Amino acid sequence: MPALVLLGAQWGDEGKGKATDLLGGSVDYVVRYQGGNNAGHTVVVGDQKYALHLLPSGILSPGCTPVIGNGVVVDPSVLLSELSGLNERGVDTSKLLISGNAHIITPYNVTVDKVTERFLGKRKIGTTGRGIGPTYADKINRVGIRVQDLYDESILTQKVEAALDVKNQILTKLYNRRAIAADQVVEELLGYAEKLRPYVADTVLILNQALEQDKVVLFEGGQGTLLDIDHGTYPFVTSSNPTAGGACTGTGVGPTKISRVIGILKAYTTRVGAGPFPTELFDEDGEALRRIGGERGVTTGRDRRCGWFDAVIARYAARVNGLTDFFLTKLDVLTGWEQIPVCVAYEIDGKRVEELPYSQTDFHHAKPVYEMLPGWSEDISKAKTFSDLPKNAQNYVKALEEMSGAPISAIGVGPGRDETIEINSFL
Ligand code: GDP
Ligand code: IMO
Ligand code: MG
């Protein structure tokens, strides 16, 4: 069994943390391949709840090596405080590996993220304000700082000075902010160097050697397919590739090594931040989904926008990721509705459209075409097998599977590890 990818099939917060943790006990490596501490992955183990932002969810499984791949952007202060928070709770984090090629989120990247959003006003993206976009922009502009730069003071100083030359012009002249002193940034970054040193490694070599030895490697995506910089609802997206291809570029493992791509799919839909969302609800059903589903951001504490399941999006995610399976989460949240609307297509300017339109203008005009599926009222949180589910819940899952373009191999019926129905084994 070579490598597997686990990623978000919607706009993030599908339950990737729980799904990763569930598999973490049976895999050798869990690797984050993109994003940074914009992610908020909740893992519930027994009566303990963990909110992970930068660390792979495999960190909670003792036999598993957690890896931060080259495609991730790392805020060292967040990383160190996340590590010490886990250590205080008795979690051993000593196996963590960090790619020397991962880029560092510097304090000026965080500043630029915040001032840019403020400047955009009504047109803002609603970013998490963690410096993600500006850090990826620096990477692409070839003025980024990498983890390995922390170990060469002269190179680090030159790179920070080069990056700030331009940024300070923009900060002072355009945004009316104070200039940032390069030497202070360098001093702060050097202060992290020794603390991070034990973790820094050639993760490309380690992961490829592990695969040669038939070890099992799980790639854990942050965000989701519709937040992908290429395949998402641009410009209302994040600045990396959460889609399956990102697992290759973000880790240095080739696509021929990946045998399974699992899309985590919520039984309804949520989104945080700005951007189009055809099935969004503004009524009491939306309120109820938010309340019952606990739909509040783990990272920013913002209320998540909520809506019904959108099969057009699920089909799109199956296609752009080459999904082999779906893991349907939060089915329990839908308990109690007499009828559950599911979006099967869009109506765009009077025409029925079955697939996600490539034109952003069309997508902004898309109105959901709903099919009503009968609901159920029985508590499903104790269900262990598919046949334990009430008939209408079974039919809801089957209908979603038929519409969505890949088999549903697991179903979440609660936040805990064991609140899962496994249909086809992932390993
Ligand atoms: P992630 O970003 O994809 O890891 O998802 P988040 O952790 O941001 O949000 C998912 C939320 O749903 C978390 O609070 C999880 O504990 C919770 N959760 C995950 N799966 C299930 C499920 O099947 N049922 C219920 N009720 N909650 C779930
Ligand atoms: P997980 O991994 C949901 C959203 C932000 C914003 C947009 C860009 O927990 O699913 P960014 O700070 O990345 O530049 O913000 O992307 N966003 C997420 N939404 N879940 C996430 O992560 C997200 N990470 C970023 O709200 O709309
Ligand atoms: Mg989340």
Automatic annotation (TrEMBL):
Read off the SMART domains from this record: Adenylsucc_synt
Asked if the record carries the keyword Cytoplasm, the reply is yes
Q: Where in or outside the cell?
A: Cytoplasm
InterPro entries tied to this protein = Adenylosuccin_syn_GTP-bd (IPR018220), Adenylosuccin_syn_Lys_AS (IPR033128), Adenylosuccinate_synth_dom1 (IPR042109), Adenylosuccinate_synth_dom2 (IPR042110), Adenylosuccinate_synth_dom3 (IPR042111), Adenylosuccinate_synthetase (IPR001114), P-loop_NTPase (IPR027417)
The Swiss-Prot or TrEMBL record lists the needed cofactor(s) as: Mg(2+)
Q: Where do the annotations place GTP binding?
A: 12-18, 40-42, 304, 330-332, 412-414
Active site, renumbered:
13 (proton acceptor), 41 (proton donor), 139
The UniProt annotation places IMP binding at 13-16, 38-41, 128, 142, 223, 238, 302
Q: Does the keyword GTP-binding apply?
A: yes
Q: In which pathway does it act?
A: Purine metabolism; AMP biosynthesis via de novo pathway; AMP from IMP: step 1/2
Reactions catalysed, as given in the entry: IMP + L-aspartate + GTP = N(6)-(1,2-dicarboxyethyl)-AMP + GDP + phosphate + 2 H(+)
Q: Where does substrate bind?
A: 298-304
Instruction: Point out the signal peptide segment.
Output: none
**Which key words tag this protein in UniProt?**
Cytoplasm, GTP-binding, Ligase, Magnesium, Metal-binding, Nucleotide-binding, Purine biosynthesis
Q: Which residues are listed for Mg(2+) binding in this entry?
A: 13, 40
Q: What is the protein's major site of localization?
A: cytoplasm
EC number(s) per entry: 6.3.4.4
Q: What does this protein do?
A: Plays an important role in the de novo pathway of purine nucleotide biosynthesis. Catalyzes the first committed step in the biosynthesis of AMP from IMP.
SUBUNIT field: Homodimer.
Q: Which family does it belong to?
A: Belongs to the adenylosuccinate synthetase family.
Name of this chain's protein: Adenylosuccinate synthetase
- The organism encoding this protein is Streptomyces thermocarboxydovorans
Taxonomy of origin reads: Bacteria, Bacillati, Actinomycetota, Actinomycetes, Kitasatosporales
The record's gene field reads purA
